[in-house]
Amino acid sequence: MSIASMAGTQHVVSPLMRESLMDRGVLARTETTVRHILPHLNVVQIGGLSIIDRGQSAVMPLLDEIVANQAEHTQVIGVGPGVRARHILSVGLDLGLPTGALATLAAKSSAQNAYMVSCLLASQGFVYLEAPFVVQLLPAMLAAARGAVFNGIPPYDLWEHPPAFGKIPPHGSDAGSYLVGEVFGARSVILIKDVDGVYSADPKTHPEATFIPDIRAADLMAMQLETLPLEPVVLELLTRSKLVKSIRVINGLVRGNLTKALAGEDEVGTVIRA
Amino acid sequence: MSNAVTNSMLTALGKRLVSGSLSDASIMRATADTPDFAILPWANVVKIGGQSIMDRGRAALMPVVDEIVANLTRHKMILGTGAGTRARHIYSLAIDLGLPVGVLTVLGTAVAWQNAQMLQYLLARHGIAFLEPEGFPMLPHYLMERGAVICQGMPPYKLWEQNPDIGRIPPQRTDTGCFLIAEAHGARKMIYVKDEDGLFTADPKKDKHATFIPRISVQELLAKDLNDLVVERAVLEMMLNARQIREIQFVNGLKPGQLTAALDGEPVGTIIYNADAAPGRTI
Known about the structure:
The structure holds 2 protein chains of 2 kinds. Chain A has 9 helices and 12 strands. By secondary structure, chain A is α/β, with parallel strands linked by helices. In chain A, the strands form 3 sheets. Chain A has an 8-stranded mixed beta sheet with strand order 5-6-4-3-7-11-12-10, with helices on both faces. In chain A, helix 3 runs antiparallel to helix 4. Chain A is globular. Chain A starts with a strand and ends with a strand. In chain B, the strands form 2 sheets. Chain B has an 8-stranded mixed beta sheet with strand order 3-4-2-1-5-9-10-8, with helices on both faces. A two-stranded antiparallel ribbon of chain B has the order 6-7. By secondary structure, chain B is α/β, with parallel strands linked by helices. Chain B has helices at residues 12-19, 25-30, 58-71, 85-96, 101-123, 139-146, 174-185, 218-223, 233-241, 258-263; strands spanning 43-48, 76-81, 129-130, 148-152, 189-194, 199-200, 212-213, 215-217, 247-252, 270-273. In chain B, helix 4 packs antiparallel against helix 5. Helix content of chain B is 37%, strand content 15%. Chain B has a single domain (36-273), classed as 3-Layer(aba) Sandwich (Carbamate kinase), CATH 3.40.1160. Classes of the chains: A alpha/beta, B alpha/beta. The interface between A and B is large, with 92 and 90 residues.
């Protein structure tokens, strides 16, 4: 490897030197195999509104189930924000704040929930990791500690993408947890909600809704459902996944569901495939 | 315990947000009708290209630095840096090693950071600070006191960067990071300083019949479905959804005066604009 000076620019010699990184042909040549950094990892995302905001009756049995499975299945726990994020989104929207500011504010609500979960799991050897520590320390922490809890909302902050409709930050804790699973090449990504999975309509308001046990992300996007139990952006991300080829949405209010999902049993929740 | 906020102080939209699903398409659409507050409407985001300016060293960079200094008392500037040739080297190496996109973003961010730090050494005597994303609440203070502030151009996505449609290179890099700084702050201008006069119908270095495009809509540019672009594709896609930034401008940093002209509001270089009506109302 060496330094080359061409047309006034001092280059480091590399296959991408002087190429346009916007050129589709150049980009296509970079398509090669990706390594699984932590292939035994399971990313478990706990919903904010669906689980945490319900308090002890919903949270404690679920945490017990996480602990009971940790020896066999290494889990890292993402946590969502819940109703306080809805409140600050409401106030922020009323004030005219942009999506990036709303994302920065909402992320603090899920950080609070993640910190609470880490306190409840502290005696079991779980630690709370902020985003910079996920980058630097997650593998070491999993070797040293029994598990880790992180803020489900990705650290996009002011740099959150403007959404296609309206101003609500599109990347919430479902997206953040999926992305953690994808980058580490995790064994599974499990989203824990308060519904059994994906239905053709919201089962809380539409009793005639039918259950969808297994579906491809592209097919689910094509159905254009008015409401989903997960962030729609996760479906888009799945269509571009390299390593995590499916996610599972399960009901965390039913004991045993997480255990079944970790064991890879097919009859629990909804599987969404890349 | 669920849905514990039942406060009559909430707006009508707020009540729907608290009780409904955020993935509900009708709620998302309803938030489109809220006003847009510009946080720093007088700030100009200026991106200094990595390969196009920084990697050229003194001959290209010092005239740009001089021009920035001359504008310190005239325009408030958020100066973002690109990454350039060292990023291309480490992307090549990391792809060969089988590392995922999120790891490439962490690595590329370090290169944009190096360029930001170099630029800050050159501007330090004028009191210019370098802020990392965590320091952004200090941004207005530095802009008002010193006229400019430096940041690294990469968005702080770290391991959470998303896979691209094609290949393994992080799709959101320094063009996108700077654009999002401008959008989030409701900035006055988004100016990209590169080593070309702007956009041409073909590569002017290879095709002598290539003609210059002074102004084009983002819709028209995307419809051309070009294989190569002057700016990251993500910027064009985000322009369609952006509520505050209506146009971006590309100037040639190798030609003294172009940056100043763009800051002064002159139509120098190429402007890519959004032809659709602005979605919101500014307050």
